[in-house]
Amino acid sequence: MNNPLQPPESSHEPSPIEPPDFTPSNEDRNLAMIAHLSGCAGILAGGLIGFLGPLIIYLTQKDKSPFAELQAKEALNFQITLLILSVVCGVLLVASCGALLPIIFVPVVLQIVFGIIAALAVRDGRPYQYPFNLRLFQ
């Protein structure tokens, strides 16, 4: 008889995100790092194309490298989240007649800070998950 205070015994299968014996290759780590850093490069184009790098890596690696695919999806979701945040900040800027000018820099700062943190994590072979992110691509 099962004890209702204890969770039922289940076979704990390894997560597809981080299998226990999985170590990403240098190429996988480099691709994941490019996925995260390409968002920073997208800032140079006004922040509107930061999602292209992760999207390209996701589409080219989705059947080849589980680590690069996972991190490209994470970076792509973050770029879309930042794009939405940029639109909201732009609307707030216009609605305040420019009084909230510093708010327009929030997405840029978030992109640079979290993009670098993510790149450093995947460089060491650790999967990175952004602290706030719309999970549009699963």
The radius of gyration is 18 Å
Question: What is the terminal-to-terminal distance?
Answer: 37 Å
- Work out the helicity level: 40-55%
State the total count of DSSP E strands.
0
Q: Which regions have little confidence, pLDDT < 50, spanning 5+ residues?
A: 10-20
Residue-averaged pLDDT, rounded?
83
Strand content: under 5%
How are helices and strands ordered from N to C?
Answer: HHHH
Q: List the domain count as a whole number.
A: 1
The global form is elongated
**Count of helices?**
4
Helix-strand makeup class? mainly alpha
The largest sheet, given as strand count, sense and whether it forms a barrel, is: none
Protein name: Putative membrane protein
Membrane topology: Multi-pass membrane protein
InterPro entries: MamF_MmsF
Pfam families: MamF_MmsF
Write a compact overview of the structure shown.
The protein is mainly α and 138 residues long.
Architecture overview:
This is Putative membrane protein. There is one protein chain. By secondary structure, the protein is mainly alpha-helical. It has one domain (26-123). Helix content is 54%, strand content 0%. The protein is built from 4 helices and no strands. It has helices at 26-42, 52-61, 66-95, 106-123. The longest helix has 30 residues, at 66-95.
Mind sketching the topology for me?
Elements: H1 26-42, H2 52-61, H3 66-95, H4 106-123
Helix pairs in contact: 1-2, 1-3, 1-4, 2-3, 3-4
Summarize this structure as a short list of keywords or feature phrases.
138 residues; MamF_MmsF; 4 helices; mainly alpha
